[in-house]
Design brief:
- This protein has 228 residues and is α/β, with parallel strands linked by helices.
- It has a single domain, classed as Rossmann fold (3-Layer(aba) Sandwich).
- 36% of the residues lie in helices and 22% in strands.
- The protein is built from seven helices and twelve strands.
- It has a seven-stranded parallel beta sheet with strand order 3-2-1-6-9-11-12, sandwiched between helices. A three-stranded antiparallel beta sheet has the order 7-8-10, with helices on one face.
- Strand 4 and strand 5 form a beta hairpin.
């Protein structure tokens, strides 16, 4: 279970440290730590010599950065930022060809989906915009087509989904919950989603941030916010 820390609120002149802009910066730093922890959890699932596919999105990009230390993988992606992140490693990285869509710099279109169907992947790490009982959703129709192609050609589907995506539905349905095997997230899903996942045999891996670590992040973020 994730630890909850009740931080005392400063009073008097120090209230400037709790301005909306400074709190926003703290929230961004904390979110980055959760993404990094989710990425480490996901990386531990990857065995040596595997061929993996990495999706578009910040959660999957964090995983790509963790994989820089690996030299025993073959990595495929349709994301330009994700393709760039692990290039410092000795693992070969393959970027699909096709139409480039901004602002995420995602490669989409018939050429990209056709290339995916020429290969087979041990694991696909899927990024989503939302999840409800009926399945996982994404806001971009074109991206969803490539995601579905990766799903069709992968032995295991692992969803990287922070808790802000729970009970949100976007434009395009990617797949049903039952199509995925593992959800890596930063907090427990609400009971109705947990029940839907359990009923479909989906395993939830929930990251934990220790009290001491959370307190340290809070202090550092406030010091930086104060001097910025």
């Amino acid at each position: 279970m994730r630890s909850v820390v009740d931080f005392p609120q400063p009073e008097g002149p120090n209230k400037i440290m709790n301005s909306p802009s400074r709190i926003s910066r703290f929230a961004s730093r904390t979110a980055g730590i959760w993404l990094a922890q989710m990425a480490v959890m996901a990386a531990r699932m990857i065995g040596g010599g595997e061929t993996i596919a990495l999706d578009v999105g910040t959660s999957v990009l964090a995983l790509a950065e963790v994989l820089v230390s690996r030299a025993d993988l073959r990595i495929f992606t349709n994301s330009v930022p994700t393709e760039i992140a692990p290039t410092a490693s000795r693992s070969p990285v393959y970027l699909l060809g096709g139409q480039l869509r901004g602002p995420e710099l995602a490669v989409i279109g018939p050429a990209a989906t056709a290339q995916v169907r020429d290969y087979y992947f041990d694991r696909f790490f899927l990024g989503v915009s939302g999840v409800i009982e009926s399945g996982f959703y994404h806001y971009a129709l074109e991206d969803s087509e490539v995601k579905r192609a990766f799903i069709e050609r992968s032995k295991q589907i692992i969803v990287l989904c922070d808790s802000s995506k729970f009970d949100h539905r976007a434009l395009a349905l990617i797949c049903g919950i039952e199509r995925c095997h593992v959800v890596v997230t930063d907090g427990p899903p609400p009971p109705h989603l947990a029940q839907a996942a359990a009923g479909s045999g989906v395993r939830n891996l929930i990251g934990q941030l220790s009290v001491s670590r959370a307190a340290s992040v809070w202090k550092i973020a406030h010091i930086v916010a104060f001097i910025c």
